[in-house]
């Protein structure tokens, strides 16, 4: 369901960056304030499901099969998104806000719009988290792997601010704000401390723009 990072361009240890976040060891990660209560009916939970296209519908089929086999008390509200219809994206957003949790397959993007970016920005999903972990007794290429990858998910190129100023000349704006950068870094450091991680490493891809 989540993409695995395959290449790191530049990385450096942020051993001194802990000074910037002095006092964090006394802080705990505060859960996000819920605007709507979690909808439960008869002890069951409702989860928004966006199958998408390509391999997405098949992946979602496997998810529902596993949940049924395990008797997980979850019902899926399935929404098929047509990326060319704005009202369907709004309907998906309303469903995810109402239910409080969602799962999605692959949703393609058009040349000038992206349903994925729309969902991230409207829901303020500024942290993209991938936990890469190998398990005992399962053959894998890298035994003993246990890495958590965070990615800033709403700024930079994800601002989708591009235009053709004149024929043959295209401008792309890379928007980065101090407020969102600080809260993203704070989230990563708080996660590391609460999960007893020893180091936080920063990775950037400044070379792509």
From TrEMBL:
Domain Isopropylmalate dehydrogenase-like: 46-209
InterPro entries: IsoPropMal-DH-like_dom
Pfam families found in the cross-reference section: Iso_dh (PF00180)
Entry GO terms, CC: mitochondrion
Family stated for the protein in its record: Belongs to the isocitrate and isopropylmalate dehydrogenases family.
Keywords noted in UniProt: Tricarboxylic acid cycle
Gene Ontology terms describing biological process: isocitrate metabolic process; tricarboxylic acid cycle
This protein's name: Isopropylmalate dehydrogenase-like domain-containing protein
Keyword DNA repair: no
Statement: the UniProt record of this protein carries the keyword Acetylation: no
């Amino acid at each position: 369901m989540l993409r695995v990072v395959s290449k790191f361009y530049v990385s450096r240890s942020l051993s001194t960056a802990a000074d910037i976040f002095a006092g964090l060891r006394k802080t705990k990660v505060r859960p996000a304030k819920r605007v709507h209560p979690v909808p439960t009916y008869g002890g069951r939970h409702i989860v928004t499901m966006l199958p998408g296209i390509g391999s997405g519908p098949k992946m979602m089929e496997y998810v529902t099969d596993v949940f049924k086999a395990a008797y997980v008390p979850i019902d899926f509200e399935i929404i098929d998104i047509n990326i060319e219809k704005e009202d369907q994206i709004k309907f998906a957003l309303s469903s995810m806000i109402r239910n409080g949790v969602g799962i999605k397959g692959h949703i393609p993007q058009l040349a000038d719009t992206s349903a994925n970016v729309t969902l991230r920005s409207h829901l303020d999903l500024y942290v993209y988290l991938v936990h890469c972990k190998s398990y005992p007794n399962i053959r894998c290429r890298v035994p003993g792997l246990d890495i958590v990858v965070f990615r800033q998910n709403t700024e930079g190129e994800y601002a989708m601010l591009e235009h053709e100023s004149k024929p043959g000349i295209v401008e792309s704006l890379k928007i980065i704000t101090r407020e969102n950068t600080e809260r993203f870094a704070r989230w990563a450091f708080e996660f590391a401390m609460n999960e007893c991680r020893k180091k936080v490493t920063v990775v950037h891809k400044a070379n792509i723009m």
